[in-house]
Design a protein that fits this description.
The protein is built from 7 helices and 3 strands; from the N terminus they run E-H-H-E-E-H-H-H-H-H. It is mainly alpha-helical. The chain has a domain of about 80 residues: Orthogonal Bundle (Multidrug-efflux Transporter Regulator, Chain: A, Domain 2), CATH 1.10.1660.10. It has a 3-stranded antiparallel sheet with strand order 1-3-2. A hairpin with a 2-residue loop joins strand 2 and strand 3. Helix 1 packs across helix 2. It is flat. The two termini are about 15 Å apart.
Length: about 180
């Protein structure tokens, strides 16, 4: 979802609230991702794709990783000096050289490996869903706590969905 505001400072404040961080951290994240608040007429905004990228970076950091190790989608590294644009690389490889063929094969193997990891992750997640007793104790306790809350009273699905949307909007600063 696109973020809009009266000025760049308001967008920065929304991001501070959204991620629970200070202004300097927001500026560091924007700089790392080569993003900036856009202005069109009197409207200041961050496009939805850029907000999603910031959300992905925030999740990356919350998982215990460092900001510096985050790799932007479509790039093979996170530093501008050594970044390789995958689409540009595909154009170069389309020329049919022997080196291009080797690189295409390398990229294909990398994609196959990534796909294998994603498939395995989905299969394992399904196993945990079907066998929650296999979860680590702390995660099992969280699941059980939510079951107790949900089982204790009937839930109107529409009301529940609206309350979740409202909470998300509040978190995004667009109540």
């Amino acid at each position: 979802m696109e973020l809009t505001g009266k000025n760049g400072a308001e967008i920065t404040e929304i991001l501070c609230t959204r991620y629970g961080i200070g202004k300097s951290s927001v500026y560091k994240r924007l700089k790392l991702l080569h993003l900036s608040v856009k202005r069109e007429g009197g409207k200041f905004y961050l496009p939805a794709t850029e907000v999603q990228l910031l959300d992905d970076l925030d999740n990356w950091i919350r998982e215990g990783n460092t900001m510096e190790t985050f790799v932007k989608p479509g790039m093979l590294t996170n530093t501008e000096e050594s970044a390789i644009d995958i689409e540009a690389l595909k154009k170069i490889l389309g020329e049919g050289s022997e080196e291009g063929t080797q690189i295409r094969e390398l990229l294909r193997r990398a994609q196959e490996k990534a796909a294998g990891v994603l498939i395995a992750q989905n299969i394992i997640a399904a196993e945990y869903q079907n066998n929650p007793e296999l979860l680590d104790e702390d995660l099992r306790e969280q699941v059980e706590a939510t079951e107790e809350i949900l089982v204790s009273k009937p839930i109107d699905p529409k009301e529940y969905a609206l309350s979740l949307v409202k909470k998300c909007r509040q978190q995004w600063g667009i109540a």
